[in-house]
Amino acid sequence: MKLNDKNWSEGVARWAVKYSAKLTYGEAREALQELAQIEISENSVWRLTQHWGEALKRVEAQEDERANGMVESQATGKVEIKSEVRLGASMDGTMLYVRGEAWKELKVGCFFEVEAAPTLDPETMDWVDLAHARAITFVSHLGGPEPFGKKMWTESKRRRWHNAVDTQVVGDGAVWIWNLVADYFYDAHQVVDWYHATEHLATAAHLAFGEGTPEASRWFTQQETPLFQGHADRIAQTILTLADKYPDAKEKLQEQAGYFIHYHHRMQYMELRSDGWVIGSGMVESGGRRFKDRFAQAGMRWSRVGAERLLPVRAAFMSGRFDERWQSAYNSPPN
Question: For a tag on the chain, would you pick the N or C end, based on fewer CB atoms within 10 A?
Answer without folding.
Answer: C
